[in-house]
Amino acid sequence: QVQLVESGGGLVQAGGSLRLSCAASGSIFSINTMGWYRQAPGKQRELVATITSSGSTNSADSRFTISRDNAKNTVYLQMSSLKPEDTAVYYCRAQRIGALYFDYWGQGTQVTVSS
Hints:
Strand 7 (64-69) and strand 8 (74-79) form a beta hairpin. The chain is mostly beta strands. The chain contains no helices and 11 strands. 0% of the residues lie in helices and 58% in strands. The protein has strands spanning 2-7, 10-13, 18-26, 33-39, 46-52, 57-59, 64-69, 74-79, 88-96, 102-105, 109-114.
């Protein structure tokens, strides 16, 4: 079992920045990929960024940077130059891809960008 707790969401003006955190606990040694996803009202959940256990990152938007602190078992999403269309619930995801696959999601944190 893996537990994920997101934090750092809130209301920010367009052009501003925000950093989200995702603290993982439980069987974290088995995780090989963590990511941030978002879901806006009436839209499908979409990938924002991922990071692997080897440190490889992938981001759907250059304004968003994913990073991690292994000592704190925490993954971060630094968001800059935010736009109203970035408004969504942001979810943290932890996966083990491959043998002994698993997939866990956090409860989500709301990010609202005002114009």
